């Protein structure tokens, strides 16, 4: 890409969510959202493959619709209350529209249809940006308005997302689509606890970013996109193979790995609020996600020779070990013992 | 967005029936003949445009109930198949498959999955027929090609025949795709008459801007009494749109395939015949090419 273009796109991409997160006025928040949407469109369509163009178009249409709805709800709020403060939403129609719009932005069920298609149509790194950085802005808006949002609605969205995220990933062989379903499921957990304890939403989000980034970077290092190719990619970096299994188990939320922390704390909070059935349902439904994570781990790590595979043994290129990958892997696996410290993060 | 398409479609209804990838939520099942004007409907060159108003419809309640029952049955089957595994196969079996027979011709039901067309649609003189071969083991596509141009003042070329699969539809008319990402070659067992055919793979894209995108490659038949086994790697397919080969070539992505078709258009008048035993997929481990075409820089600076 032209260096001028990449500088502009990178700066806009960084600035957009930061603008949204640091704003008090709805118009500035909306501006930040629009900047980040527009900045990532050329990245998605960088390759001009028909599927990449399709992914970019789908992304643009869904995000533009959501931004319009956010603007509409903020204008409606300003009309009724006379002020544009994000934290002062009134508890009625604007909140409902805002919730819908942010659900579309994030890819929460039942507005999740665009996410797997968009992630599948782009490269691995762009998919990483879409699932991590692009979620910052809408989630920060959700957290800022969490006191005005409708709790039953958030619980419904959360439960549906966890269910659909788990269900969708069951038959996928494409890794990016699996990560999309993982994203939907994790966002479901975040949404469930939003109105009850926004701090836990943020904690879940931070751990989700670390684990998802680790997984995507591992997928990029191994240069695979399908489970059948993962079966023979252990030859490239055997240590990475083992770490991948642990990272996937962390994504699934198994103790004693990092991913267990948010799930445990969310279940505890739900129980404190006397929502036992909700907590039980969430725990049971996340078994679906666990199934496909286990499946990937099985095909990646456990199917070693002399098991039959369906892909040729891959060439071992020069191993490009990256320090940041090692750091992120460590973070995504070993943070459970410092849970009390994590609770102090705002 | 899909909902707005469905609503638009239920508004634009007319008499002739040619369903595209659209959904008729409220009135659809009740209508006997319906057209979707979402992707602009085909107008045969030389004919006047069809201006029948949308309120002239034929209602049929029984047919509507049948269609609703059929769709719910399909939905239930889809949910059960989702539980079973990708494409209805168990996951292990799906991952380890190296060959798969996708289409074979053993009964009229298998033939019904295919659509045969020729330039008779635009007023040409070619004829194409599809029938089961001897002992119901093969499909025989035969007919006569005629390059005589129809005299409608618009058409300049003529003389083609084709056979392609129907678009796979899920419950309620949703698009369904084949996932062939585990394979890398198309395997055909055919017996032709020496004519060159073109194989077209359509990926049925989401947006209508790309609806004419087709991936093509050639199939040269040998003629003669012996069966010919042709293996065409998917890396050889080139991208064309509305018949024009594109400058920007991209490989065929195998995770969303919709239809496969054969076309004959070799400008030779006369009878033709193609007998197909089966069409399958193959994972050829010896074939490591990812894409056969490189992109050269257009207008290079000296």
From TrEMBL, chain A:
GO CC terms: mitochondrial inner membrane; respiratory chain complex I
Localization in the cell: Mitochondrion inner membrane
Domain of life: Eukaryota
Catalysed conversion reaction: a ubiquinone + NADH + 5 H(+)(in) = a ubiquinol + NAD(+) + 4 H(+)(out)
Alphabetically ordered keywords of this record: Electron transport, Membrane, Mitochondrion, Mitochondrion inner membrane, NAD, Respiratory chain, Translocase, Transmembrane, Transmembrane helix, Transport, Ubiquinone
Major localisation: mitochondrion
Membrane topology label: Multi-pass membrane protein
Pfam family, one: Proton_antipo_M
Stretches that traverse the bilayer: 57-76, 96-115, 152-171, 178-197, 203-222, 234-254, 274-294, 323-345
UniProt-listed InterPro entries: Complex_I_Subunit_2, NADH_DH_su2_C, NADH_UbQ_OxRdtase_chain2, ND/Mrp_TM
Domain NADH dehydrogenase subunit 2 C-terminal: 290-342
Record keyword ATP-binding present: no
Span of domain NADH:quinone oxidoreductase/Mrp antiporter transmembrane: 23-287
UniProt feature coiled coil, ranges: none
GO biological process terms, semicolon-separated: mitochondrial electron transport, NADH to ubiquinone; mitochondrial respiratory chain complex I assembly; reactive oxygen species metabolic process
E.C. numbers: 7.1.1.2
Record bears the keyword Transport: yes
Gene Ontology molecular functions: NADH dehydrogenase (ubiquinone) activity
Entry's family note: Belongs to the complex I subunit 2 family.
Function: Core subunit of the mitochondrial membrane respiratory chain NADH dehydrogenase (Complex I) which catalyzes electron transfer from NADH through the respiratory chain, using ubiquinone as an electron acceptor. Essential for the catalytic activity and assembly of complex I.
Protein name per the record: NADH-ubiquinone oxidoreductase chain 2
Organism of this sequence: Chrysemys picta bellii
Classification of source organism: Eukaryota, Metazoa, Chordata, Craniata, Vertebrata
Gene that specifies this protein: ND2
TrEMBL record, chain B:
Keyword Cytoplasm: no
A Gene Ontology molecular function term of the record: unfolded protein binding
SUPFAM superfamilies with a match to the protein in the record: Galactose-binding domain-like
Biological process according to GO: chaperone-mediated protein complex assembly; mitochondrial electron transport, NADH to ubiquinone; mitochondrial respiratory chain complex I assembly
InterPro entries: Galactose-bd-like_sf (IPR008979), NADH-UbQ_OxRdtase-assoc_prot30 (IPR013857), NDUFAF1 (IPR039131)
GO cellular component, one term: mitochondrion
Xref: Pfam families: CIA30
Keywords: Chaperone, Mitochondrion
Principal localisation: mitochondrion
Protein origin, superkingdom: Eukaryota
Location of this chain's protein in the cell: Mitochondrion
Function: As part of the MCIA complex, involved in the assembly of the mitochondrial complex I.
Subunit structure: Part of the mitochondrial complex I assembly/MCIA complex that comprises at least the core subunits TMEM126B, NDUFAF1, ECSIT and ACAD9 and complement subunits such as COA1 and TMEM186. Interacts with ECSIT. Interacts with ACAD9. At early stages of complex I assembly, it is found in intermediate subcomplexes that contain different subunits including NDUFB6, NDUFA6, NDUFA9, NDUFS3, NDUFS7, ND1, ND2 and ND3. Interacts with TMEM70 and TMEM242.
Family of this protein: Belongs to the CIA30 family.
Protein name per UniProt: Complex I intermediate-associated protein 30, mitochondrial
């Amino acid at each position: 890409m032209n260096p001028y273009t990449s500088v502009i796109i990178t700066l806009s991409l960084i600035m957009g969510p930061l603008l949204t997160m640091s704003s008090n006025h709805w118009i500035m928040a909306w501006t930040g959202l629009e900047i980040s949407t527009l900045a990532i469109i050329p990245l998605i369509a960088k390759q001009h493959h028909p599927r990449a163009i399709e992914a970019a178009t789908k992304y643009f249409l869904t995000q533009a619709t959501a931004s319009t709805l956010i603007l509409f709800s903020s204008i409606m709020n300003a009309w009724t209350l006379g002020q544009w403060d994000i934290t002062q939403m009134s508890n009625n129609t604007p909140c409902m529209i805002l919730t819908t719009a942010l659900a579309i932005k994030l890819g929460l069920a039942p507005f999740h249809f665009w996410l797997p298609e968009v992630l599948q149509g782009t490269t691995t790194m762009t998919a990483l940006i879409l699932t991590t950085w692009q979620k910052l802005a809408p989630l920060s808006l959700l957290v800022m308005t969490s006191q005005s949002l409708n709790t039953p609605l958030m619980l419904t969205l959360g439960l549906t997302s966890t269910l659909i995220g788990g269900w969708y990933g069951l038959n996928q062989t494409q890794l990016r689509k699996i990560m999309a379903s993982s994203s939907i499921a994790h966002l479901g957990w975040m949404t469930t606890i939003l109105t009850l304890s926004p701090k836990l939403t943020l904690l879940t989000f931070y751990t989700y970013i670390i684990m998802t980034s680790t997984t995507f970077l591992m997928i990029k290092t191994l240069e695979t996109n399908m489970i059948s190719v993962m079966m023979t990619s252990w030859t490239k970096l055997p240590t990475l193979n083992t770490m991948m299994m642990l990272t996937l188990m962390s994504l699934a939320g198994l103790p004693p790995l990092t991913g267990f922390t948010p799930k445990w704390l969310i279940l505890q909070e739900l129980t404190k609020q006397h929502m036992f059935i909700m907590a039980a349902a969430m725990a049971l439904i996340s078994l679906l996600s666990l199934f496909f994570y286990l499946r990937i781990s099985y095909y990646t790590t456990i199917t070693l020779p002399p098991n039959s595979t369906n892909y040729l043994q891959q060439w071992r290129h020069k191993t490009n070990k990256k320090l940041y990958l090692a750091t992120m892997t460590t973070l995504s696996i070993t943070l459970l013992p410092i849970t009390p410290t994590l609770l102090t993060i705002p | 967005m899909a909902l707005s398409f469905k609503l638009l479609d239920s508004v634009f209804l007319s008499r002739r029936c040619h369903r595209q990838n659209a959904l008729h939520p409220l009135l659809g099942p009740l209508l006997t003949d319906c057209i979707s004007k979402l992707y602009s409907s085909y107008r045969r060159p030389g004919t006047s445009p069809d201006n029948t108003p949308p309120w002239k419809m034929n209602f049929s309640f029984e047919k509507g109930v049948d269609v609703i029952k059929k769709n719910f049955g399909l939905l239930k089957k889809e949910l059960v198949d989702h539980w079973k595994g990708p494409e209805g196969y168990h996951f292990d079996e799906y991952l380890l498959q190296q060959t798969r027979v996708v289409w074979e011709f053993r009964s009229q039901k298998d033939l019904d999955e295919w659509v045969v067309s020729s330039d008779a649609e635009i007023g040409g003189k070619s004829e194409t027929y599809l029938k089961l071969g001897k002992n119901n083991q093969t499909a025989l596509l035969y007919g006569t090609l005629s390059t005589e141009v129809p005299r409608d003042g618009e058409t300049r070329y003529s003389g083609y025949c084709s056979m392609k699969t129907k678009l796979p539809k899920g419950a309620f008319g949703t698009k369904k795709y084949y996932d062939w990402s585990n394979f890398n070659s198309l395997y055909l067992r055919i017996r032709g008459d020496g004519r060159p055919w073109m194989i077209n793979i359509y990926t049925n894209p989401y947006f209508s801007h790309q609806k004419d995108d087709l991936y093509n490659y050639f199939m040269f038949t040998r003629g003669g009494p012996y069966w010919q086994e042709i293996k065409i790697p998917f890396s050889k397919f080139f991208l064309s749109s509305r018949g024009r080969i594109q400058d920007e070539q991209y490989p065929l992505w195998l995770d969303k395939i919709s239809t496969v078709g054969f076309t004959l258009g070799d400008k030779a008048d006369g009878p033709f015949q193609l007998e197909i035993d089966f069409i399958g997929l193959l994972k050829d481990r010896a074939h490591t090419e990812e894409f056969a075409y490189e992109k050269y820089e257009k207008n290079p600076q000296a």
